[in-house]
Automatic annotation (TrEMBL):
This is TRPM SLOG domain-containing protein. Residues 4-101 form the TRPM SLOG domain. It comes from Rotaria magnacalcarata. It holds the Pfam family LSDAT_euk.
Length: 123
């Protein structure tokens, strides 16, 4: 079986994105096809919660200490999203705004550009 499909979601840990990520994880385990299907979460940096942003900043190389500090006071409880961990890839766009949501235009442009690159056998 040749399964080089790409599935694009918002990549956040609720709703359809969560179900898709979990479904692909279960399918991979049951069918013994690890990472054959690429599940790509595409969302805005400002959509995810402060704790997730801090965790990503700390695990990335090259962030100076001032960039790894909280932007939102810890006493303020955020009702924001986390990244769905069963996705194989996550692309975060940054508009410079908190609570900004990704429009379909960014996903559409990603698909257009990915489809142009046919030389590597992935599209």
């Amino acid at each position: 079986i040749h399964l080089d499909a790409w599935i694009l979601t918002t990549g956040i840990d609720n709703g359809i994105s969560k179900l898709v990520g979990e479904g692909i994880s279960h399918y991979s385990l049951l069918r013994e096809y690890p990472n054959k299907v690429k599940c790509i979460g595409m969302t805005m940096w400002g959509t995810i919660n402060e704790n997730t942003r801090l965790r990503l900043k700390h695990t990335s190389n090259g962030n100076p200490p001032p960039l790894c500090e909280r932007q939102i006071p810890a006493k303020i409880e955020e009702d924001r999203e986390t990244i769905e961990l069963n996705h194989t890839h996550c692309i975060l766009f940054d508009s410079g705004k908190l609570y900004d949501y990704l429009s379909d235009s960014q996903r559409n442009q990603f698909v257009i550009e990915a489809c142009k690159d046919t030389g590597d056998g992935h599209t």
